[in-house]
Amino acid sequence: MAPPLLLLQDIALTLGDTALLDGAALSVSSADRLCLVGRNGSGKSTLLKIAAGLIEPDRGSRFVQPGTTLRYLPQEPDLAGHPTALAYVEDGLGPGDDRHRARYLLEQLGLTGDESPARLSGGETRRAALARALAPSPDILLLDEPTNHLDLPAIEWLEAELASLRSAIVIISHDRRLLEKLSRTTTWLDRGATRQLDRGFAAFEAWRDERLAEEELEQHKLARRIVQEEDWLRYGVTARRKRNQGRLARLQDLRRQRREYRGVAGNVKLAASEGETSGTLVIEAKSAAKSYGEARIVADFSTRILRGDRLGIVGPNGAGKTTLLNLLTGTLAPDAGTVRLGANLAAATLDQQRSSLDPTRSLADTLTDGRGDQVIVDGKPRHVMSYMRDFLFKPEQAKTPVGTLSGGERGRLVLACVLARPSNLLVLDEPTNDLDLETLDLLQEMLTDYSGTVLLVSHDRDFLDRVATSVIASEGNGRWIEYAGGYSDMVAQRGHGVEAKAASKAKPAADRPAAASARPKAKRLSFKDEHALKTLPGRMETAQAEIGKLQATLADPDLYARDRAGFEKSTQRLTAAHAELAAMEEEWLELEMKREEIEG
Fold it and tell me: Where is 580: in which H helix or E strand?
């Protein structure tokens, strides 16, 4: 057996009063395909950072074979300090690496390389960071949630690219399909320690359940032995004192084992509060259309959605999935055609930006909406502490500001808020973001049992296969077609998966709307517009830098307790800075389009 390229042994790390890692290990050999799995908060990302050499553990050893090249993809890449996306990727190359591969990977991921990092979206930032990690073809790739913020075409491209590499790969992901296709070894991080299965993720869950059942049986046997020893201690016939002392020591050891045992973290308890039954017809669209300028988002779309349908909407980023969702729910009016909503609809909506969460509000206030200590669940009051436990929150987190919660905790909190409201229509825009695999399982089961109707936008292929009864897919240029079954059924029917959105091309003059053709063309930009075009990029970069500093300040878990006024001030400024940046980006885009129109 070849010696490992990377070896972690007996890793321990304590954060505050909590032992996050205690005896964890990781071994990576040449060409390994290893997935690292565990519950949210179990320490997977921390262990990967230790493997990358970014964090020093309290105890344990890290060994990397001399000459081994290693690249790490963080969950939140930082491109600050680089003028373009290409410069950021090239900065990660070594002296002998192929510099052409940097631009090739960026183009494959839908970027030109000339983009300013300050103007990249979350998904584009993720793509640039992926290109930087992949470009050197390292000996070891450490990938933390590589599919976050990626659309389906990018996920499927990444899957094929990783499968073709010679690099050893360690991957953390909630994308089951990706893990099943890529992994050959599974390392399970559970209660601070690691256990290894020499098979891929497809075999993991059955193996995990067997281990947990064995552990539960051992704990049951331990409890019985303690009862027997305590019975002997109270009622047994006195023998030689030395022998009695030995039995007493064994009893104390058994009690210590039970006291030190860390039980398995519970599961989230998901149950939707169901409202009155809706009519049989939930939504009917007839020749609905929606455009923004010359960009057709939805064109001549018709569908009938009936009570109990679970409809998935898929397409590349920018195709208009959220726009279609808003049309179907009546949030957005169509430019042409009609959308009719059925009788007695009560909708509950989860948006992908989690915009319903106020970062300055406490967890308990968010759940109760400021109504003391009661949560209204399914129309009935329930104590907030009890409801928090259903979603794996601890009582001491009740006063924790939402802004300090992790991504997984915010995901569970939004679910808790949405599922408390009585509904017969669930509208879910990327509900799987930041949720661990166990919570995804429970969400899938809840949606399957839900008697109402579900509209779902997701890039998670496995989740769509498990939940959706039909899938609406973008075919480009505003065309959307409905396919029976889940994502795999859609692929079988159309012959391919979701393809990347083609770059928009200018239409021939004859195809343009008459109003656009008749509009007089400006001869030149005004001095004010020219000045704005020159200065806006710098101002946007400054705003992006300020946002980065504010986010770093708010990431301090002790800030709220130490300086509540400072926390609230920073939070308010962060919200304002995001709004200012969005306004500048919109202004720059309008001016750039105006400039392109003038230049022909």
Answer: helix 564-599
Amino acid at residue number 523: K
Residue pair 559/566 in contact (Cβ under 8 Å)? The answer is yes
| pLDDT digits 0-9 by tens, 113-147 | 999 988 887 778 989 999 999 999 899 999 999 98
Mean pLDDT of the chain: 82
CA gap 265, 263 in Å, rounded: 6
Please say whether the beta carbons of 434 and 407 come within 8 A.
yes
Distance between CA atoms of residues 160 and 165, nearest Å: 9
| Interior/surface letters 16-33, b for 16+ CB within 10 angstroms, e for the rest | eeebbbbebbbbbbeebb
Cα 125 from Cα 547, distance rounded (Å): 15
The 3-state DSSP class for residue 69 equals coil
Strand residue runs (E) in 114-246: 140-144, 168-172, 185-190, 193-197
Quick: pLDDT tens for 173-200. 989 999 999 999 999 998 889 999 999 9
| 425-444 per-position pLDDT tens digit | 989 888 887 777 877 888 88
Q: Which amino acid is at 123?
A: G
Using H for helix, E for strand and C for coil, what is the string for 200-223?
Answer: CHHHHHHHHHHHHHHHHHHHHHHH
pTM over 0.70: no
How do 6-15 and 59-64 pair as beta strands?
antiparallel
Residue closest to 377 by CA, chosen among 269, 271, 451, 266: 271
What pLDDT is attached to residue 498?
Answer: 80
* Full DSSP string of 495-528: SS-PPPPPPP-PPPGGGS-HHHHHSPPPSS--HH
Give yes or no for a contact between 409 and 393, defined as CB atoms under 8 angstroms apart.
yes
Secondary-structure percent of the chain, ordered helix, strand, coil, rounded to 5: 45, 20, 35
Report the 3 state secondary structure along 323-352.
HHHHHHCCCCCCCEEEEEECCCCCEEEECC
Contact 402, 413 (CB under 8 A): yes
C-alpha triplet 385, 387, 391: angle, nearest 5°: 110
* Amino acid at residue number 265: A
Rounded CA-CA distance 33/277 in Å is: 48
pLDDT per residue as tens digits for the range 439-475: 788 888 888 888 889 999 988 899 999 899 999 999 9
pLDDT over 70 percentage in the chain: 83
Residues 38 and 190 sit within 8 Å (Cβ to Cβ): yes
What Å distances lie between residue 509 and 479, 506, 512, 515, 516, CA to CA? 21, 9, 5, 12, 9
